[in-house]
């Protein structure tokens, strides 16, 4: 990964404003590479979490894959969001206006919501996978429902965000 036209990577931790750095790998913006992880792993984690809750027979088998997929997927969504912010702040978009800019802003709006949905999904799924086996009754039902609802929201928002991003690029 090369960093050009910017301070060292730790500098944003010490300043209130993020300066523009171009995060690239082999000349490609890092965002273009990272989004594929979010688009693939986000839905996989959501489907795994739904299966974990609904398929009691396979719950022990699905517990660790669901935990790992969830952590990696949430990390991928946040990485996609942060690299997208960096990519949009680059000089490539300095002269964008009109419909092209509106398409990018729509994608950005979905991504801002997706990062919080992914975070909520991650927290609920981790708590549930950690304590679901020991819970019974209403608590178990509520935890299961929260996982399914947040997983469906994750599926929908990954789709909406990805669709808006592809429309911004490909028209």
Largest sheet: 3 strands, antiparallel
Spans of at least 5 consecutive residues whose pLDDT stays below 50 are: 1-8, 10-19
Mean pLDDT: 85
Shape: elongated
Structural class: mainly alpha
> Mind telling me the C-alpha Rg?
18 Å
Q: What is the chain-wise order of helices and strands?
A: EEEHHHH
Oligomer classification? single chain
* Strand composition percent: 5-15%
Task: Please report the total strand number as a whole number.
Answer: 3
What does this structure look like?
The chain is built from 4 helices and 3 strands, in the order E-E-E-H-H-H-H. The protein has 171 residues and is mostly helical. A 3-stranded antiparallel sheet has the order 1-2-3. The chain is elongated, with a radius of gyration of 18 Å. Mean pLDDT is 85; it is low at 1-8 and 10-19.
What's this model, at a glance?
With 171 residues, the chain is mainly alpha-helical.
Question: Descriptors for this entry?
Answer:
single chain, 171 residues, mainly alpha, 4 helices, 73% helix, disordered N terminus
Task: Give me the secondary-structure topology.
Blueprint: E1 2-4, E2 22-25, E3 28-29, H1 30-54, H2 59-89, H3 98-131, H4 137-170
């Amino acid at each position: 990964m090369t960093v050009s036209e910017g301070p060292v990577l730790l500098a944003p931790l010490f300043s209130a404003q993020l300066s523009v750095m171009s995060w690239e790998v082999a000349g490609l913006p890092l965002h273009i590479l990272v989004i594929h992880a979010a688009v693939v792993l986000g839905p996989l984690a959501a489907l795994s979490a739904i299966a974990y809750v609904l398929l009691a027979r396979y719950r022990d088998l699905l517990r660790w894959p669901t935990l790992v997929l969830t952590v990696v997927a949430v990390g991928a969504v946040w990485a996609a969001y942060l690299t997208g912010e960096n990519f949009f702040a680059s000089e490539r978009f300095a002269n964008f206006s009109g419909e092209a800019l509106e398409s990018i802003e729509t994608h950005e709006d979905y991504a801002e919501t997706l990062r919080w949905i992914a975070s909520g999904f991650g927290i609920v799924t981790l708590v549930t996978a950690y304590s679901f086996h020991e819970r019974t009754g209403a608590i178990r039902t509520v935890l299961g429902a929260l996982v399914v609802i947040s997983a469906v929201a994750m599926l929908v928002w990954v789709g909406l965000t990805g669709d808006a991003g592809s429309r911004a690029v490909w028209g």
